[in-house]
Amino acid sequence: MRFIIIGLSIIFFTLSAVITFKTLELPAQKTSYQDIREEVTSESNNIIKKLAEDQEASRVIVADLQATITQLENQLKTKEQVLESIKTTDTENRPRTLAVFDGETFHSGKIAINDLTLSTIEHFVGEISASQDSRVIIEGHTDNIPTGKLHIDNMALSLRRAKAIANILISHGISPDRISVIGYGDTQPIDSNNTEEGRAKNRRVEVKLMPKEGKN
């Protein structure tokens, strides 16, 4: 019995030694917690890098858009300045209407001028005198009703009406050299000739002041 116990003890000791030796031969392995931590750290770094790249790309896009907007605003401002310059120049060189003598001044087929017309002319003759470099344009118009008088058509009638106004200006000291008289007859109506009211508007003489070309 004693020998059996000793033998079993030897066998047990031998197995223990073998197991201990095998354990020492196994390579050291990382814990699962360390693996997860490294994976999370690596993924976090990738995300941070991606966000930084996206932010930089967005910054470049925003900078490009701002530059484009600035360029468009400058182009628009330049075009507005050009248009304003053209508008100003065009306005300065266009004739300005001083007065319109319509059907209340001239009855159909008539040239005679009433006292109201004389009073109106006296109001703007001072402005004409002050604008020495400007020309005076007087345009005569008629309705489409024939005059009924021999050798006088609407074209001639409109010219005579314009000359009647011009003679009054000359009598107030305006030089004839500054005055241009034009007769348009019934070619430029501003209203319908089918009504008396419309014909009265079309029977008119317009007095305009034309600035000297190139004068500011």
Describe this structure as you would to a colleague:
- By secondary structure, the chain is an alpha+beta fold.
- The protein contains five helices and four strands.
- A four-stranded mixed sheet has the order 1-4-2-3.
- The longest helix has 62 residues, at 32-93.
- 15% of the residues are buried.
Distance between the termini: 139 Å
Number of helices, where a helix is a run of at least 4 consecutive DSSP H or I residues: 5
**CATH homologous group name of the domain at 95-210:** OmpA-like domain
What's the alpha carbon Rg, rounded to whole Å?
52 Å
Structural class: alpha+beta
* CATH topology-level name of the domain at 95-210: 60s Ribosomal Protein L30, Chain: A
Strand tally, please? 4
Question: What do the pLDDT scores average to?
Answer: 78
- The neighbouring-strand order within the major sheet is 1-4-2-3
* The CATH class of the domain at 95-210: Alpha Beta
Order of helices and strands: HHEHEHEHE
Q: Note the overall shape.
A: rod-shaped
